[in-house]
Amino acid sequence: MTALVRQVTSEFVGTAFLVATVIGSGIMATQLTDDVALQLLANSLITGAVLVALILTLQPVSAAFNPVVTAVDAVLGGTPWRNVPPLAVAQIAGGTVGAIAANLMFELDAVSISTHDRSSSGLWLGEVVATLGLVLVIFGAIRSGRTDTIAYAVGGYITAAYWFTSSTSFANPAVTIARMFSNTFAGIAPASVPAFLGMQVVGAALAVVLVRAIFSSTNSEELSREGALQR
């Protein structure tokens, strides 16, 4: 297999497991308790844990699981632009498969379009903040030469961002799109998706500015040749 095929496969599998975890843990939490705070706690801790596991496992090949992270990596010189479309498609397709798998595991319809409306200025700002922070954490680790910490940094950040952002930190277009297909705790109504995607792009763009302002490009250039996210 070529390097790109391995990367596409890694992104597909990783994003599928990520979305299956986000949706599946939300379903399990609502089955076990009616306490919304406990439901969110379970959802956030389990999502953070699986991110650590998936990134540790797949980072040697490709472990972005997120189209905006892949695009930012290209902007900063870590991934060739020609690789961005196939990687993004793999992430979206993998996320959709993960949503279907989660639904089926809990004996729900394979696809059930979410009716969970998430539309307000506060939620949109939450997505800007969530995505900005996620991208800053990832590329701050890369530019400071600490790629071995990315798994723990991302897992910890997402666990926290579930709680401190109003949107519960989707921060990922592939995950956002996939969550349309499950009318459960973690779902999002299709009408709410475009604004979330737009705010994620805004957050990522702001993060690029901050990363360039805060961190030296020297380590980034060296790590890009090694391939910190996509090898």
Descriptive overview:
Keywords: Membrane, Transmembrane, Transmembrane helix, Transport. The chain crosses the membrane at residues 12-30, 36-58, 87-106, 121-142, 149-165, 185-215. It is found in: Membrane. The structure is a single chain. The mean pLDDT is 94. The longest helix is centred in the N-terminal third of the chain and has 30 residues, at 3-32. Helix 3 (67-75) runs parallel beside helix 8. The protein has one domain (3-226): Glycerol uptake facilitator protein (Up-down Bundle), CATH 1.20.1080. The chain has 231 residues and is mostly helical. It has helices at 3-32, 36-58, 67-75, 84-105, 121-143, 150-164, 173-178, 193-214, 217-226.
SSE order and pairing:
Layout: H1 3-32, H2 36-58, H3 67-75, H4 84-105, H5 121-143, H6 150-164, H7 173-178, H8 193-214, H9 217-226
Helix pairs in contact: 1-2, 1-4, 2-6, 3-4, 3-8, 5-6, 5-8
Pfam families: MIP
GO molecular function: channel activity
Family: Belongs to the MIP/aquaporin (TC 1.A.8) family.
Q: What can be said about this structure in brief?
A:
This protein is an all-alpha fold. It is built from nine helices and no strands.
Helix-strand sequence: HHHHHHHHH
Structural class: mainly alpha
CATH class: Mainly Alpha
**Major β-sheet annotation:** none
Q: What is the molecular shape?
A: globular
Number of strands: 0
Q: What's the number of domains?
A: 1
| Poorly predicted runs of 5 or more residues | none
Question: Approximately how much helix is present in the residues?
Answer: 55-70%
Mean pLDDT: 94
Name given to the CATH architecture: Up-down Bundle
Proportion in β-strands: under 5%
